[in-house]
Amino acid sequence: MAQTGETVNEIIVLCEGYSRYADGEHPGGADGEEGSEAAAAGDVMLANCTCTLIKGPDCNVIVDTMTPWDGDLLLRRLQEHQLHPDDIDYVVSTHGHSDHLGNNNLFLRAKRHIVGTNISQRNRYYIHDFNAVWCGKTLPYFVPA
Predict the structure, then answer these.
(1) Helix or strand or coil: residue 69?
(2) Which candidate, 47, 71, 102, 137, places its Cα nearest to that of 113?
């Protein structure tokens, strides 16, 4: 329960992700188990990330913007929460796969785009060493409200 004066953020899954082999087979089980062989060249995966909205009183963050073919779906899901791409302050892509950053271009007014360990806005790239350690702890990147 939030204390008086404490900021409360709402975490909303806009689209739930998935990952499976197109033919229904799932290689990679434990040795000796059915499906223990590694994926072969030519195998096809069906996958998309989970797209999450962190909606706060002063700041909105979208995490992983799905594939470029999901733009209309993403816009509809934002609209369901009374939001427009211009209302998003920060875009976070957990890594550089196309299903995690496919619609980052919708959020051109965001203060920062964070892709993996890269932080940028327009042609500015902000230097932050995510591996830096101070007093035995890694230094996080704080998203200001």
Answers:
(1) helix
(2) 102
Q: In b/e form, how buried is each residue of 46-59, taking b as 16+ CB within 10 angstroms? A: eebbbbbbbbeeeb
Phi-psi region of 19 (alpha: psi -120 to 50; beta: other; left: phi over 0): beta
* CB-CB contact of 65 with 103 (8 Å): yes
Q: With contact defined as beta carbons under 8 Å apart, do 17 and 48 qualify? A: yes
Query: Residue 86: its pLDDT value, please?
Result: 99
Q: Would you state the pLDDT for residue 118?
A: 84
pLDDT of the residue at 33? 45
Determine how β-strand 60-63 pairs with β-strand 90-93: parallel
Q: What pLDDT is recorded for position 124?
A: 87
Mean per-residue pLDDT pooled into runs of 10, the chain (145 residues): 74 96 64 50 86 96 98 98 98 94 98 89 83 70 70
Q: Contact 91/104 with Cβ under 8 angstroms?
A: yes
Q: Measured between alpha carbons, how far is 56 from 58 in angstroms, rounded to an integer? A: 5
Tokens encoding 86? 């211009």
Four-point Cα dihedral 63, 17, 83, 120, nearest 10: 20
